[in-house]
Amino acid sequence: MAAAGKAAAFHLPPLPTVGEIIKLFRLRAQKELSQNFLLDLRLTDKIVRQAGKLKNAYVCEVGPGPGGITRSILNAGVEQLLLVEKDTRFIPGLQMLSEAAPGKVRIVHGDILTYKMEKAFPNHLKKNWEDEPPNIHIIGNLPFSVSTPLIVKWLENVSKRDGPFIYGRTQMTLTFQKEVAERLTANTGGKQRSRLSIMSQHLCTVDNCFVIPGQAFVPKPDVDVAVVHFTPLVQPKIQQPFELVEKVVQSVFQFRRKYCYRGVEILFPERERLKKTEQLMMAADVDPTLRPFQLTMAHFRNLCNTYRKMCDEDPSLFAYNYREELGQTKRKHSPESIDQLEQTKEEDHL
């Protein structure tokens, strides 16, 4: 019996197992949607523990699928759980969980990439950005196909303090392909250092918590999966607009195997490229012969700050698009320019 004055800890009543739910509703993971089910509740419990203390917390779970992680979240004693699921096949099984936890679960049939989270939680949960994170968490076993565009979208939300971050420094615990997780957390000089490393680490504390072997999923993916935890920083390490930072970082990593000045060059129109590149590198105090993965966060901060000053002096500069200029040249059938255009695609997948 619970002690006087204390509410008893919540536990789900006996339910069909996740495997039985899959059989009951004839659910099959769809390869085209990059779906992989995690049935081992010991692993789902471990994922949820990475989010920290969830008792009485408000949680949004992304893509709950058959509800394995959902059960672990409910058993952690949350106050409210919002489930955002795109695939209609999973809704009946999630409704079964909702009925087993009266008043705790809200199911939204929708796409998390377009779902507006600004009104997902009560206003009283909002915290000032400088305060401790709000009692709100985002948790999800993300389909591989959506994980990178979704985290980039949320990083932009962090930068602008909107979306799920209108409530404050909302924490996220998400799964990624192991290689993507390594990019998100890679240090300077690491072979996985990439655009994602800079964009995530300049805005958040990013922790690679643990790796789940591919064989733990059904069906088994060709890669292992890692759990990554994000806590937005009070002050970003690069205090410039998201679009500007993304443009500089993406340009630098466009040619990751070449000297970094090669990527910086494509920030500028051809007619003034050499002059402006030299001006930027010198003012930012960056060695032009360093490779992109060798650049520190301070290097990127200096590059972004200097580029911002150059854009303020010449407002048309930020609108310049290297691909458009190369595309115009390509239409003139220059073999050299065609090769150059193809080379710019080298790191797009990062």
Automatic annotation (TrEMBL):
This protein's UniProt keywords: DNA-binding, Methyltransferase, Mitochondrion, RNA-binding, rRNA processing, S-adenosyl-L-methionine, Transcription, Transcription regulation, Transferase, Transit peptide
Coiled-coil region(s): none
Subcellular location: Mitochondrion
Keyword Cell cycle: no
All residue ranges annotated as the Ribosomal RNA adenine methylase transferase N-terminal domain in the record: 43-234
Main location (coarse class): mitochondrion
InterPro entries from the UniProt entry: KsgA/Erm, rRNA_Ade_diMease-like_C, rRNA_Ade_methylase_Trfase_N, rRNA_adenine_dimethylase, SAM-dependent_MTases_sf
List of residues binding S-adenosyl-L-methionine: 36, 38, 63, 85, 111, 141
Example of a GO MF term: DNA binding
Keyword ATP-binding recorded: no
Top-level EC class as recorded in UniProt: transferase
Residue ranges of the TM segments: none
Family of this protein: Belongs to the class I-like SAM-binding methyltransferase superfamily. rRNA adenine N(6)-methyltransferase family. KsgA subfamily.
PANTHER family: DIMETHYLADENOSINE TRANSFERASE, DIMETHYLADENOSINE TRANSFERASE 1, MITOCHONDRIAL
Protein name per UniProt: rRNA adenine N(6)-methyltransferase
UniProt source species: Gallus gallus
